[in-house]
């Protein structure tokens, strides 16, 4: 029953001190303002003000409505501001899903400038090792999926952002480190350290071992790159990482990168998003920033 206009009238009356001045402030005629409040009073069965000569005195009900106006109107004005920001693409939430687990460090080079440019956009990164990216996009649980395996769906678009080569990472003091490339059979006597995901999402299996019908001696799953590299450095096994990460970590760990097969295993990192979201400015900006890294 209470409308926003009623609250505006009460606040204007309090600040301006008269019906005429309040009506001018609200761009209303004095009769329209009085009619609006009289209609509200009739519906509620209360009196909000009484005239005392040329002045108005608020009743207890009027004082209560004025307090409500002073509390509620700033909140409603904030809602207006936020909704305009959503409509103009300045405000929103960007949820990123990570399927390429070693690519987190690359992502941080994109996130930092993005957050500076879009202070009103909330950002979250979801990194789960058993993450169903396609379902998450379709169910609007995430807005962009970071993956090296693009998905064929008419409602999705793909933005390639990074080309890389997958390398075998070995301890620098081992015979494998002296090779320029390895064959799949070279891993038959090796412990292969991987992230804890199914083999269908591990490129070393799908693009290298499975086509050659080769099994490693043992597969050992760990969740972090740092632990993985500590194990490799201690000659407890081998792992695979993108070439740019190998180059970075070689400065901190005694490791070497070896090509998988003579031609190597080459991959592309994609950002996958819903086509309908392409109208959002902050999503377009994130895609543009990522493609330049």
Written description of the protein model:
Keywords: Activator, Amino-acid biosynthesis, Cytoplasm, DNA-binding, Methionine biosynthesis, Repressor, Transcription, Transcription regulation. Its main location: cytoplasm. The chain has 293 residues and is of the alpha/beta class. Strands 3, 4, 5, 6, 7, 10, 11 and 12 form an eight-stranded mixed beta sheet that branches. Strands 1-2 form a two-stranded antiparallel ribbon. The chain has a two-stranded parallel sheet with strand order 8-9. It is rod-shaped and about 105 Å long. It contains ten helices and twelve strands. The mean pLDDT is 88.
What is the mean pLDDT? 88
Termini separation comes to 55 Å
Order of helices and strands: HHHEEHEHEHEEEEHEHEHEEH
Number of helices: 10
Structural class, from secondary structure content?
alpha/beta
Bulk shape: rod-shaped
Number of strands: 12
Low-confidence stretches: none
Helix content: 25-40%
Gyration radius from CA atoms, angstroms: 32 Å
Q: How would you sum up the major sheet?
A: 8 strands, mixed
Percent strand:
15-25%
């Amino acid at each position: 029953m209470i409308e926003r206009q009623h609250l505006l009238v009460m606040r204007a009356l309090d600040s301006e001190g008269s019906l005429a001045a309040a009506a001018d402030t609200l761009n209303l005629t004095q009769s329209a303002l009085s009619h609006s409040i009289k209609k509200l009073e009739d519906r509620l069965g209360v009196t909000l003000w009484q005239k005392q000569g040329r002045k108005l005195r608020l009743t207890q009900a009027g004082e209560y409505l004025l307090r409500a106006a002073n509390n509620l109107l700033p909140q409603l004005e904030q809602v207006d501001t936020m909704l305009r920001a959503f409509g103009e693409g300045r405000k929103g939430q960007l949820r990123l899903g990570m399927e390429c687990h070693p690519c987190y460090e690359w992502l941080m080079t994109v996130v930092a400038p993005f957050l500076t440019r879009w202070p009103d956009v909330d950002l979250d990164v979801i990194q789960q090792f058993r993450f169903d990216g396609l379902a998450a996009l379709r169910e609007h649980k995430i807005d962009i999926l970071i993956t090296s395996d693009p998905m064929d769906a008419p409602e999705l678009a793909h933005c390639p952002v990074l080309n890389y080569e997958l390398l075998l990472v070995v301890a620098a003091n081992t015979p494998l480190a002296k090779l320029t490339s390895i064959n799949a059979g070279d891993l038959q006597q090796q412990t292969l350290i991987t992230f804890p995901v199914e083999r269908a999402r591990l490129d070393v299996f799908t693009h290298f071992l499975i086509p050659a019908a080769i099994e490693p001696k043992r597969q050992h799953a760990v969740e972090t790159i740092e632990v993985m590299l500590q194990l490799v450095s201690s000659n407890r096994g081998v792992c695979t990482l993108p070439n740019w990460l190998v180059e970075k970590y070689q400065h901190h760990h005694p490791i070497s990168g070896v090509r998988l097969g003579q031609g190597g295993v080459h991959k592309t990192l994609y950002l996958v998003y819903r086509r309908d979201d392409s109208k959002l400015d902050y999503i377009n900006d994130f895609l543009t920033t990522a493609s330049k890294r």
